[in-house]
Amino acid sequence: MENEFFLDTDDLFTDEIALRLRKTAPAKPEKRWVPAYYFDICLRDGTKIGSCDLRVGHNEKSYIGGNIGYGIDEAHRGHRYAAKACGLLFKLAEKHGMDHLYITCDPENIASARTCEAAGGRLVEVADIPEDNEMYAEGKRRAAVYLFELNNCPKSIE
């Protein structure tokens, strides 16, 4: 039954990049985790340049941890690939009926903040990470929370 939740992702590509589905993960209510997709970000020739994920749904964990996570390999940074991947994930989120989502980053991570702004996000707050959150256990204490209203966000980033 859970597999019926996840949608086809073969349309998540641009002229430059494609998202290649690596795995899906069902919700884990006992951990307050929402269902998630995990992708490799690849150039159109198949070269893996990073990864991203989409967490579908909203709760206190997805607010602090964000609905999207991303990382671009150092050799491929500076081309807005993370923002372009976000634009593709916005399309998938809309297919799931989401009208907004959050992306969070360390307040000191200027590159990630620029990615959020390039993808159409608006800084809502810098929030304290609760002590019962896994991010707190990793040593993180604050998260810059960006809101993306999907009807106002670009699905194609230049």
Q: How would you summarize what this structure contains?
A:
The protein has 158 residues and is of the alpha+beta class. It has helices spanning 60-65, 81-95, 110-118, 134-137; strands at residues 17-25, 36-43, 48-55, 68-72, 100-105, 122-128, 142-149.
What structural keywords apply?
158 residues, Aminopeptidase, 3-stranded antiparallel beta sheet, 32% strand
The CATH superfamily label reads Gcn5-related N-acetyltransferase (GNAT)
Structural class: alpha+beta
- The level 1 CATH classification is Alpha Beta
Give the C-alpha Rg: 15 Å
Q: Order of SSEs, N→C? A: EEEHEHEHEHE
- Indicate how many domains the architecture comprises: 1
Mean pLDDT: 94
Strand content: 25-35%
According to CATH, what is the topology? Answer: Aminopeptidase
What is the count of DSSP helices, taking H or I runs of 4+ residues? 4
